[in-house]
Amino acid sequence: MDEFCLGENPHPEKAVRAIRFEPVSGRLIISGVSAGNARSMPLVWEKRKKVLLRMPPEVSFDSTLDEHGLFSQIEIDLGQVISATPQLVYPIEHWEKTRQNLQPEASPTEIVFEYSAHPDACFHLFGNRTISVTDLDNDARQGEPVLQSIHTPNQSVILRVVE
Fold first, then answer.
1. What is the DSSP string of 20-72?
2. Running DSSP on this structure, what letter comes out for residue 150?
3. Is pLDDT larger for residue 134 or for residue 153?
4. DSSP 8-state assignment for residue 73
5. What is the mean pLDDT of residues 61-80?
6. Strand pairing partners for 130?
7. Closest CA to 86 of 109, 103, 67
8. Is 66 exposed, middle or buried (0-12, 13-18, 19+ CB in 10 A)?
9. How far apart are CA 146 and CA 80, in angstroms?
10. What is the pLDDT of residue 7?
């Protein structure tokens, strides 16, 4: 009897037609069986990233979570939405004339989401709209919600310790 490591087919050139479980002794617990065509192991996600959701002006973001901890207007398969915060809007055009402690305003239609996901993941937006993680910046339609990736700079830092 073959043992599978992390559910991988030990003979990938052969198609799996059936699975038979035979407990050697005691009880057998199966926690899940699935099949798919992911580019890599679906349980391995990329590092945290951010996206900006631009919603139509007539739609406001619902920040409440359901009983499973999910937002009603945005979900992601093969991943997890970590946080959602309104985009902060600073008075850029009048910056020199504003006082120094002026706080930014929260945008009602632009929300920043932090997420972690597999490269094959898709965002599922309200209105039955689906956007692939790989197609984030290429899928803009007039009047519909738009997701735009926020590129975070990665920079090496050199620390010098002086005693």
1. ----SSS------------SS-TT-----EEEEEE--TT------B-TTS-BS
2. E
3. 134
4. S
5. 85
6. 124
7. 109
8. exposed
9. 19
10. 58
Tokens of 100: 């120094």
Place of tokens 């007539």: 58
Gap between the Cα atoms of 23 and 32, Å rounded: 16
Question: Does residue 82 contact residue 150 with C-beta atoms inside 8 Å?
Answer: no
Residues counted in the chain: 163
- State the pLDDT at residue 114: 92
| DSSP output for 101-146 | TPPPEEEEEEEEEEEEE-TT-EEEETTTEEEEGGGGGG---TTS-E
Which amino acid is located at 150 in the chain?
I
**Contact (CB, 8 A) for 145 and 126:** yes
Distance, in Å, from the CA atom of 137 to the CA atom of 54, rounded to the nearest integer, reads: 12
- Find out whether 31 and 37 touch, Cβ atoms under 8 Å: no
pLDDT tens for residues 105-146? 888 888 899 999 998 898 888 778 888 888 876 655 544 557
**pTM of the shown model:** 0.66
Distance CA 54, CA 87 (A): 10
Each residue's pLDDT tens digit, 25-66: 878 787 777 777 777 777 788 888 999 988 888 887 888 888
